[in-house]
Amino acid sequence: MVGRSDVGGKGWLDMRVTKAQAEQNRAHIVTTAARLFRERGYDGVGVAELMAEAGFTHGGFYKHFRSKADLMAEASANGLSRTASLTETLDIAEFVESYVSREHRDGRGEGCTIAALSGDAARQPEDIRTEFAAGIESLTAALQAEGDASPDTHQRTARATVIDALAHSVGAIMLSRACPDGSSLADEILDVCRESILASLTHGDGSQSAAGSTSPQPA
Amino acid sequence: MVGRSDVGGKGWLDMRVTKAQAEQNRAHIVTTAARLFRERGYDGVGVAELMAEAGFTHGGFYKHFRSKADLMAEASANGLSRTASLTETLDIAEFVESYVSREHRDGRGEGCTIAALSGDAARQPEDIRTEFAAGIESLTAALQAEGDASPDTHQRTARATVIDALAHSVGAIMLSRACPDGSSLADEILDVCRESILASLTHGDGSQSAAGSTSPQPA
DNA sequence: ACCTTACGATTACGGTCATCATCTAAAAAG
DNA sequence: CTTTTTAGATGATGACCGTAATCGTAAGGT
């Protein structure tokens, strides 16, 4: 390992790195990881491949993160907040329309982290599930809040209604993705559910009586 | 299938047929794998650990399966058909009641393969997704068929209603499982969705009646 | 201008993984 | 009986994994 006496400064250049650059590189690693995890699952992407995709070699990874598990949690939080912020301009009906769609189903890497990784997250340590709970809360809050700004007859959507529609939408996407590409069942699930969810939103759905615990708790 | 077809004549074939025990061992490996995959995901359990859990060493694995991917497909089919057959005695309301429950959420290994592995299946090769589509169809058929035996009161539930309720239930379980153990959100999701799904079954479309028999059966 | 800090590259370590070669004993086939 | 076949055990192989030690180098504070 000592053979690096190095002669002649020929070395390929790779001058970069300022403090701000490093921070930017770190952020890039996180968002890259978030996308790769959505596409292939937490176990489907290794540190080396991840860093390569971000434009680095795998060695520098541990200057940014203490472990892969740490990055998994951070990438999850990043992806979840991304979904929530993208949703902030949508009301529930618009959200459902774009969420329960073929485009979303077929664009896993660019889609919702909940739909892409909740199955994996369920088996991960608690810190990741805590991020998911927070992400669900943020998304719920975003969907409830929409309409508040509008002066007209919009009223804040009931929390239960939002949670229900979200679970319904997630289930539709996951079932559809579990079917073979182009299968009629995959499309049928999407169409049936989208119509049903939208109907339940416009329908006289004012039923959110006390069902179990109603204690919102952002983590 | 211990069928001893046995040919008295001199047909050339019949080179197969091993001990009946081998066939039984193979089946045991498949059901063990189905449970372990549900608990930890396809990538979360290795061949050696799997075989050990089934009571064997890892070497004999390839006398039964050509690859781990082969077993993954077979174990998926096994788990999915198990869920469908366990559901055959339930109508939709009973199904939802037992499916969208804390017991099911917390008993991943003994629960529904769709809820446990659809997130993983979406990233697997087509043969596994074909099994999932078939499993969804079987489960849908089982839920539609229930009630046919009864005289007038029940009529065949609409396919769309069943698919919709199934996706909704799956989404509820997956979201709840993605939350930390014992979190209030995890329980809230379950309670909100269960009530909503049951409500949509009783007053939604033009074909459905209330529950007649009561036999809540945890899978 | 020093000196400290640390990004990122290189290389290597244990460990685990799927897969397979080989051996064995026993069951089937003759 | 003998021969053939094979379920399962044992052990090796090579690839890949997460993690870490080392180092060149440049940035940032003083």
The number of distinct β-strands of chain A equals 0
Mean pLDDT of chain A: 85
Unreliable spans of chain A are 1-15, 206-219
Largest interface: A-B, 57 and 55 residues
Distance between the termini of chain A: 48 Å
Shape of chain A: globular
Structural class of chain A: mainly alpha
CATH class of the domain at 67-202 in chain A: Mainly Alpha
This entry's quaternary arrangement is homodimer
What is the N-to-C order of secondary-structure elements of chain A (H for helix, E for strand)?
Answer: HHHHHHHHHH
**What is the CATH third-level topology name of the domain at 67-202 in chain A?**
Tetracycline Repressor, domain 2
Helix content of chain A: 55-70%
Q: CATH homologous superfamily of the domain at 67-202 in chain A?
A: Tetracycline Repressor, domain 2
Radius of gyration of chain A: 21 Å
The appropriate CATH architecture of the domain at 67-202 in chain A is Orthogonal Bundle
